[in-house]
From TrEMBL:
Coiled coil: none annotated. Residues 44-211 form the LUD domain. PANTHER family: LACTATE UTILIZATION PROTEIN C. Signal peptide: none annotated. Transmembrane segments: none annotated. SUPFAM superfamilies: NagB/RpiA/CoA transferase-like. InterPro entries: FTHF_cligase-like_sf, LUD_dom, NagB/RpiA_transferase-like. It comes from Streptomyces radicis. This is Lactate utilization protein C.
Length: 213
């Protein structure tokens, strides 16, 4: 008897007492399971888990944000930055004029974006328990391509408003037909020998700025 026969036999035995005309919708399923482990401080949990994924975490208030972004771009040596159309202009107000601003243009090719040093965006929300940033292509986030091709991504999270405890708490807040991108740390992969390589499928460096109003 093959493994396939064993599995199918178990399925048939499990369904032996189910009427043939019964559908899954006919049987109510209790969904009263916990939707979160209720971290004591969701923002601190988010920061810890982002750091575990090798994201660089910074904190600022709204007044200090432009100066912080300017410093992060300068430390990176960035001479160009791509910006979504709805990025609040004050976020880059501290950035020197000689840092070239690149618009999120529909005709921008991967080659064009690969020549850009950094990208600055907002986010849709952040999930504390998994250390995940979710982008949905909103006005302050832009097209998915601009956060996948440049090698350096600065993402601003408004805390605590944009932080949720868990994935089950996040899903009802997201629109499923939008281009959702879930980011847990910088892009990374590993080969069969578990040698980690960053920057293969997205930015090599992810910097997350937690901004309190």
């Amino acid at each position: 008897m093959s493994g396939r026969d064993v599995v199918l036999g178990r399925v048939r035995r499990a369904l032996a007492d189910v009427p043939r005309d019964e559908s899954p919708d006919d049987v109510p399923v209790a969904r009263d399971y916990a939707t979160t482990h209720s971290p004591a401080d969701a923002v601190e949990t988010l920061a810890e888990n982002l750091a575990d994924y090798r994201a660089l975490v910074h904190r600022a208030d709204a007044a200090a944000l432009p100066g912080l972004i300017a410093r992060l771009l300068a430390e990176r040596g960035s001479r160009s930055v791509v910006t979504p159309p709805g990025l609040p202009p004050e976020w880059l107000s501290g950035t020197p004029e000689d840092v070239r601003r690149v618009a999120d243009a529909a005709d921008a090719t991967p080659h064009d974006l690969d020549a850009v040093d950094s990208v600055v965006t907002g986010c849709a929300l952040a999930i504390a328990e998994t250390g995940t940033i979710v982008l949905d292509g909103g006005p302050d986030q832009g097209r998915r391509r601009i956060t996948l091709v440049p090698d350096h991504h600065i993402c601003v999270v408004r805390v605590p408003d944009q932080v949720v405890d868990s994935v089950p708490r996040a899903l009802p807040l997201l629109v499923p037909d939008r281009p959702l991108t879930w980011i847990s740390g910088p892009s990374a992969t590993s080969d069969i020998e578990l040698d980690r390589v960053e920057g293969v499928h997205g930015p090599r460096t992810l910097e997350v700025v937690l901004v309190r109003a």
